[in-house]
Every structure is written in C-alpha cells, then in structure tokens.
Amino acid sequence: MLNESIKMAIDGMVSNKLRTFLTLLGIIIGVGAVIAMVGLGFGVKENIRENISKLGSNLLIITSGGRTASGARLAAGEGARLTYEDAQAIENQVDGIANVSASVSSSYQLVMGNQNWTSRVEGTTPSNFIMQNYDIEDGRAFTERDLNSRARVCVIGPTVVNSLFPEGNPVGKIMRINKAPFQVIGVLKSKGQSGGGTDQDDIVFIPLTTAQNRMMGITHVQRITVQAESENVINDVQAEVEQVLRQRHKIKDGDYDDFTVGNMAAVMDTMMETANSITMLLGCIAAISLLVGGIGIMNIMLVSVTERTREIGIRKALGATYDNILLQFLIEAMVIGIVGGSLGVVLGVGASYAISYFAGWTTVVSWWAIVIAVVFSVGIGLFFGIYPARKAALLDPIDALRYE
User: Deepest in the core among 103, 148, 235, 336, taking most CB within 10 A?
Assistant: First the structure.
C-alpha cells in the first residue's frame, strides 16, 4: 500500500506538471533562502572572529588606573604606574602565557631630507610584532640586543614610507624622530585600517628602552599586553596576572586595584552573541517563505481533493478505508516537501557560493542548517497536508460518486 501510494503521488505530480512546479517553487525558494541566509549569517560570524583574532582574541590589555580608596574610578593611565619589571614578573611567574610586551607611545614629527610627517611612535618590545600580527616586508624587526642597548633603530609602516621616502627603499637610511636620528631597519607589511578607522600603517616602532630613556625620559610603561596560549586559559591567566600585580603593587585584600585588565575574549563573546542574533534573524526571515510554501501545498492539495472526489468515492466503494485515503494524500504532500526540499538544498548551496563569488561576502554553508531546512520542509508538507487528507478521507462514498 505504501509503495502504491508513493507511485500514485508521483504520477499525480507528473500529470499536472505546471501545478506541481508552482507548488514546489514555494518550498524550493524557502529551503534555498534558509540555507543561503544562514550561510551568510555564519559568514558574518567568521569575519568577526577573523577580525578580532587579528587583534588578538587571547590578549589581555593591562593599563594603570583603577579605583581610589573612596571608590572613585581613575582614568586609564592615572594612579600607580606600571613598569617593564611588572611585565617581566608576569612573564616569569604566570603559567599559560605565550608572549608579553610592554609599550609607550606618543606622536612625534618625523623628518627625512626635505620631507616631514607626524606619526605615532610606539616604544615596545620585540614580542609585540608577533602579538599584534605585524609582518616585516623588508629588512628586520629590532631584537632583544637592540632593546638592551637602547639602540636608535626603528621599524616603520607603509604610510610613513610613502610620506617620507617617495624615492624608494628606506631600509638602512637615517631619519629624525623629534630631531633625534634613527636608522630604519625594517618596513612593515600593510594592514590597512582598523575597525575604528585608524590607519594601522601610520606607525613607527622603536625599542621600549630607547623610547623611555632617550625620547620621553620616563621609567614607567603605558600598557602591558599579555598573550595567553589559547582562549581556553585566558580567564585563568587573567586571575594570575591580577594576583601578581596586586602583590607587586602591595595592594591589600579588600582594597581596589590600581590597574585595569581588559579581556579581548569578552569582546569576542559579545560580538559572537551579536552575530548569532543576526544569523537567527536572517534564518527567521527566510523561514517565512517556507511557511508560504506550506500554505501553497495546502491550497494545491485542497484543489486535488476536489478534482479527485469521484476517484475517492470509487476507491471507498471498492473497500478503501479512512486510513488508506488519509495515507495516500499525506504521502502526496510529503513527496512534494521532500522533492522541494532536495531541490531547495541545491539552490541554497548554489546561492551561497554565488553570493561569495559575485558579492565578495563570506558565506559558510552549514550542514545542520541543510538538515533542519529539509526536515522542516517535509514537516510543513505533512502539517499542511493533514487537513486536505482528512477532508478526502471523510468524504461520503455515495456523495463522492454523485460529484460532477
């Protein structure tokens, strides 16, 4: 009986090609839209994850500034000063750390020949290039030896190169930073603008000790950056870092910290929640078309019941039961859902790749989205087929045979 019902459903679809196509179209578009929109949403999540990972999703940013004894919050950079020794203590005493760097920065005028430019100059340690994902395009980065000797060397970004060295390669040449001579030993690869619109290529890196002793005349650092081995241990690392700094700064139990630790993983979590909301919204909007497709199935099945009233009467007169008629029409509705869902998967995957290729947007085809969309399309066929099937099964055979 099941095989016969499936064969009859397929024969009915083939004999009414245009009507079947229009019915399938709603399901095809619905399933395809769900897969494509969810894929687009996952692409947004992947872009956000990639962009934040470039900044360092497993980074802790430590700055001075916390709360006073009265509870008033200090601005970042105020209060007790962080030192390079704090950074070294963190690196030596805290487990689960991949890299640590300390830095200071300020804007200075740069001069090369008759060219001048104002840029941000950052004094930092060699590990900062790894932590901030800066790659060297030409020359080299400064080393621990340069740091220990307070060498007057610098690594510059592409924007600085274009502004001060229009004639060619700057590596090995001497430029002045705030009237002090520095040798250019390396050029960074371009990173473009950050999410906040800052030009990441308009930067000059010099050794931290050189900046402290020869440029700024300070002993403290403005920021300590800690890179955890992975995102999984970053919360443990943060707790240990806070404990080390509290001990070094002689902060008693119950007193407020005189420093602030920013966790980039928290930023990642917040952005991921936003991206999940966007994905859910896109999926729900696309699912509406699936609902419309289900209404189309009900409409066509009601028409089919009306057209086949005499056939139903004959089958009942020959002994077909309520369950036989109900099963026949339910299978017809489910076949439409299965065929439409399968074609919708092809459309959705193709649309996802087309969006990625032509629009340049990242899309990620999700297998669970495909499974859910197909199951949902079959479920819609079943749900919206119940009423027409029940109506057919409840027809009185005598009245059905008299139907013209």
Answer: 336
The answer to whether the pTM exceeds 0.90 is: no
Residue range 340-355, pLDDT digits in tens: 888 989 998 998 888 8
Q: Alpha-carbon distance 189 to 159, whole Å?
A: 10
Tell which phi-psi region holds residue 374, choosing left (phi > 0), alpha (psi between -120 and 50) or beta.
alpha
Q: What would the mean pLDDT of 87-100 be, rounded to a whole number?
A: 92
Q: What span, in angstroms and rounded, lies between the C-alpha atoms of 66 and 80? A: 9
Alpha helices in 82-153 (DSSP H): 84-93, 127-131, 144-148
Which residues share a beta bridge with 182? 175
Give dist(CA 297, CA 306) in Å, integer: 14
| Whole-angstrom distance, CA of residue 69 vs CA of residue 46 | 43
Q: pLDDT tier at 207 (50, 70, 90 boundaries)?
A: very high
- CB-CB contact of 142 with 151 (8 Å): yes
For the chain, counts of helices (H) and of strands (E): 13, 12
- The DSSP symbol for 255 reads S
Write the DSSP assignment of 52-90 as a string of letters: HHHH-TTEEEEEE--B-TTSPBPPTT-SSPEEHHHHHHH
